[in-house]
Design a protein that fits this description.
458 residues; Aspartate Aminotransferase, domain 2; binds pyridoxal-5'-phosphate
Length: 458
């Protein structure tokens, strides 16, 4: 472990955390008042071990903890920070909005602009309802689908995460996998029985499910790019098949782009498939409903359910599906989202593509050089590294064969080299527009320094 610099000691003294033992004191204080010391489970580092200090600030590609240690951030607020932390244009838009009033509980012009911005980039989003979290968005999408079809059953895929509403908290990927619990306690058998879980990418399981239960299926929900079990590249034709089966059987296809939307590519995971279909001469398919989050809020709480106008108009006040939110479309949050989206032009996506490619290639080369078996999962600019696998996985069972203990070694070693990886082997590595080639080189050097050795949490 590195010696503590005098600067670090001063800062820790100020926090009342005198030595690295002090980190434990911090953790105890947090855990005394908040379950597990966190407000979202994966932040507790259960998947890698160790005790995170609170974060003090972040700027550009860097994040700084309360002891003043700086890290190249590859978490980026789990994908929301696509333009880099505290981007001046986003901060100034937020300041301007805040000075006009924090919340009105009434519609603003900026909400309409954000909805228009989403629709202009993503054609299947004919109408948009803004909400505050991805969980609300997917929960509402299910409600619309059930209302539209008069059916109960939802099909989801093992390892895909769609937020923490009861019906979707079954075999749900990263957070649960990291905590070592397959399904959440507190979800009633009654709710779980209406959720059918299939292996991701399994054509036979999907066609059999429709053959047997088609008339009971209200919706199939799938991540446009599964990225909550590490990043899985959607098998060619799988999502098109979902779309066809849903259309044939009168079910609703819900594409969850909360993580991948406006991040995997300019039109999310769907856009990548549309472009590939057009290039291959296939007729592109479209989801009936789609959910967004993360990027469209630029780091503040905005998410949305969107899709076919006839389905969206089932929502109150037009239709009979109730959904509401005191802070939905909050003006400050919408200002952050709009400013972020407006920074995402063709050049921005070309840059994200380039940096993401350099990073995954450089990291993979260093791992090869160190003799660490691994596979790279990738879709567009999204990627993750699976240690211990020789092929990119598709199903959650395949993902679960990765060497999560070795990931923990890599995590801690890179941290001591000033790189913050996601604290779980089941998460994507996120790059932003603020990551430069120099940052990429530093991450690659850090992987070289690690060299596959054991590394324990401080
Ligand atoms: N859907 C996907 C694909 C996600 O990755 C997430 C969150 O990570 C959600 C839904 C839930 O979003 P939120 O955490 O905003 O509720």
């Amino acid at each position: 472990m590195k010696p503590i610099s005098s600067q670090l000691k001063t800062k820790m003294n100020r926090l009342g955390l005198r030595t690295l033992r002090g980190e434990k004191a911090w953790e105890e204080r947090a855990a005394d008042v908040m379950p597990g010391g966190v407000n979202s489970p994966v932040r507790a580092w259960n998947g890698v071990g160790g005790h995170p200090l609170p974060i003090a600030s972040a700027k550009g590609a860097m994040i700084t903890d309360a002891a003043g240690r700086e890290f190249i951030d590859l978490v980026d607020s789990w994908g929301a920070g696509i333009v880099g932390h505290a981007h001046p244009q986003v901060v100034s838009a937020v300041r301007a909005a805040a000075s006009n009033g924090l919340s009105f509980g009434a519609t603003t012009e900026a909400e309409v602009e954000l909805a228009e911005e989403i629709r202009a980039r993503y054609a299947p989003a004919q109408k948009v309802r803004l909400v505050s979290t991805g969980t609300e968005a997917t929960m509402t999408a299910l409600r619309i689908a059930r209302a539209a079809t008069g059916r109960d059953v939802i099909v989801k895929f093992a390892g895909c995460y769609h937020g923490h509403s009861d019906a979707l908290l079954v075999a749900a990927g990263s957070g649960l996998a990291t905590s070592g619990v397959p399904d959440s306690a507190g979800v009633t058998a009654g709710v779980a029985k209406d959720t059918m879980v299939l292996p991701y990418g399994d054509v036979d399981a999907l066609t059999d499910a429709f053959a047997e239960h088609g008339s009971r299926i209200a919706a199939v929900i799938v991540e446009a790019v599964p990225a909550n079990m590490g990043v899985v590249s959607p098998p060619e034709g799988f999502h098109r098949l979902i779309s066809q089966l849903c259309r044939n059987e009168g079910a609703v296809m819900i594409l969850d782009e909360v993580l991948s939307g406006f991040r995997a590519g300019p039109a999310g995971g769907w856009g990548l498939e549309r472009d590939a279909d057009v290039a291959a001469g296939h007729e592109p398919w479209s989801p009936d409903l789609v959910t967004f989050g993360k990027v469209i809020g630029g780091g503040l709480p905005v998410a949305s359910v969107a899709g076919r106008a006839d389905l969206m108009d089932l929502l109150a006040p037009v239709g009979a599906v109730y959904q509401a939110g005191t802070l939905s479309g909050n003006p400050v949050a919408v200002a952050a989202g709009l400013a972020t989206m407006r920074l995402l032009d063709d050049d921005a996506y070309a840059r994200l593509d380039k940096v993401s490619a350099l990073l995954r290639k450089g990291v993979s080369e260093q791992l090869h050089a160190a003799g660490v078996p691994h596979a790279v999962g990738r879709a567009g600019t999204l990627f993750s590294i699976f240690l211990g696998l020789s092929e990119p996985p598709i199903t959650f069972d395949e993902v679960s064969d990765q060497d999560a203990l070795r990931y923990s070694d890599m995590f801690h070693s890179l941290r001591s080299s000033g790189v913050a990886l996601p604290p779980s082997a089941y998460e994507a590595w996120f790059v932003s527009l603020a990551h430069t080639e120099a940052h990429v080189d530093r991450v690659i050097d850090a992987v070289k320094t690690w060299g596959g050795r054991e590394a324990k949490a401080p």
